[in-house]
Structures are given as C-alpha cells and as structure tokens.
Amino acid sequence: MLDFLDDLNPLIRNSSKNWLLDNIATFERILDPILQNLLQTKMGTFDPKSQQYFYNQVYESKITNQAFRQLKIVLLNGGERFIKYLMSAGLSRRPASATG
After folding, report:
1. pTM of the predicted structure, to 2 decimals
2. Does residue 1 lie within any of the structural domains?
3. Any domain includes 50
4. Domain of 39, in residue numbers
5. How many angstroms separate the CA atoms of 42 and 59, rounded?
6. Distance from C-alpha of 50 to C-alpha of 33, rounded to nearest angstrom
C-alpha cells in the first residue's frame, strides 16, 4: 500500500492514505520492513577491529532510495499522528533471528 500513497489516481491515493491512518496503532508493521531494507546486512560485513563496514557486493542504491521515498510519504500523509506515534512508541525490540 505504501507504493500507492503517491499514485497519480486520486482515488487510489486517498484509499491508501486512509489505510495508513487506520493502521496507525500498528505502525511498527509498516516501518520495520522499510527500516530493515535500509539496514540490510547481506550486502557486507562489519569489521570490529577496524570499525569499518565492507561491502561484499555492489550496493543497491535503488533499495535506499525507495525506503527513503516511502518514509517521506508516510511522514507527509501520516502528519501529526505519525509524529505522535514516533514519540510514544519508541523502537520495537525484536530478536535478529525473528526478522528473517
């Protein structure tokens, strides 16, 4: 549904905005997948000795651009309700093995 928040058709845009606002109580289900895309660990490894992150393959900037576009759309459409959610919810704490 996030991809439809900036659709050219106003009916589709409005429906997806309503979906977003109806699901404000479970925003972690919307935000966690977006953030997980940004924090992919499959593309490289972190060397604790040198405190550097090394990419094993070409970084997919398309993933980052899409994630930031989706976050921007959620922020613009969620408005004040989104900000209130961020202020009250904090970060969800799930074990790394549960995310995939």
Report:
1. 0.60
2. no
3. yes
4. 27-92
5. 10
6. 29
The residues facing 45 across adjacent strands are 54
| Residues 55-68 pLDDT 10s | 777 777 888 888 88
Question: What is the domain count for the chain?
Answer: 1
User: How is residue 10 annotated by DSSP?
Assistant: H
Q: Residue 55 pairs with which residues in a beta bridge?
A: 44
**C-alpha distances out from residue 56 to 17, 64, 70, 79, Å:** 38, 17, 26, 38
11 part of a folded domain: no
Q: Would 58 be classed as within a structural domain?
A: yes
Measured CA angle at 44 (ends 43, 50), to 5 deg: 165
Retrieve residue 93's tokens: 């704490």
Contacts of 78 (CB under 8 A, 6+ apart): 20, 21, 24, 27, 85
Q: Is there a contact between 65 and 71 (Cβ–Cβ < 8 Å)?
A: no
Residues 27, 63 contacting (CB under 8 angstroms): no
